[in-house]
Amino acid sequence: MEKQKLRRIFDKQATQYEKKREGPMQKRWRQHLLSFAKGEVLELAVGAGANFPFYPSEVKVTATDFSEAMIEKAKRAAKNHRIESDFICSDIEEMNFSNQSFDTIVSTLSFCSYDNPLMVLDKINRWCRPGGQILLMEHGISSNLAVSVVQKSLNPLLYRMYGCHHTRNILGLIRESGIKVDKVESYWLNMVHLIWAKPRQ
Q1: What is the residue range of 21's domain?
Q2: What letter does residue 200 receive in the DSSP assignment?
Q3: In this structure, is the dihedral angle defined by the CA atoms of residues 52, 53, 55 and 56, taken in order, positive or negative?
Q4: What is the pLDDT, as a whole number, of residue 1?
């Protein structure tokens, strides 16, 4: 899908994302993962700012998204939760930061939408400081055969509607990238993964 069309899909969903009420389990996942964030934080694909309620108050967040409408919602969330933050409206696949710029890099539910997820993982590896951490909450293909068959059959439609792939092997991509995984917690028939990791040396 061309990027302009994908951007329009997410622009249209911005209000829906802002009003979305996640269940207690998803909130616990975010709180659990983001309690480890520290220092200078880079958040990829911030969306409407669902993570801001869960960041420790002392962090400074650089938040990116390619949707202007999402960025506007996220700015409101950061202000409401008093998180020091800067915002960049740009496609992460086209962005560059200096190597070793961030103490923590966060992505929650964004790797389903990238054209080249391995390239983004390579950037994360370079942008994270030695001794820093990479915190991911991502979804992908289930380990349950019956569920995975349904995911594969619905994936083309869901991608056209929401700009989101449901069949990516998230843990496989991370292993291929060379990121050093410290801990993984998997849920919902292994469709959702919380991942604590470090950049490759």
Answers
A1: 3-198
A2: -
A3: positive
A4: 65
Sequence-distant (6+) residues with CB within 8 A of 176 are 118
What is the spatial order of strands in the sheet that 180-187 belongs to? 84-89, 60-65, 40-44, 102-108, 128-139, 192-198, 180-187
Cβ contact 67:11 at 8 Å? yes
Instruction: Indicate which CATH number applies to the domain containing 45.
Output: 3.40.50.150
Q: What is the pLDDT of residues 49-97, one digit of tens each?
A: 999 999 999 999 999 999 999 999 999 999 999 999 999 999 999 999 9
Question: Number of structural domains, the chain?
Answer: 1
pLDDT tens by residue, 129-178: 999 999 999 999 999 999 999 999 999 998 988 889 999 999 999 999 99
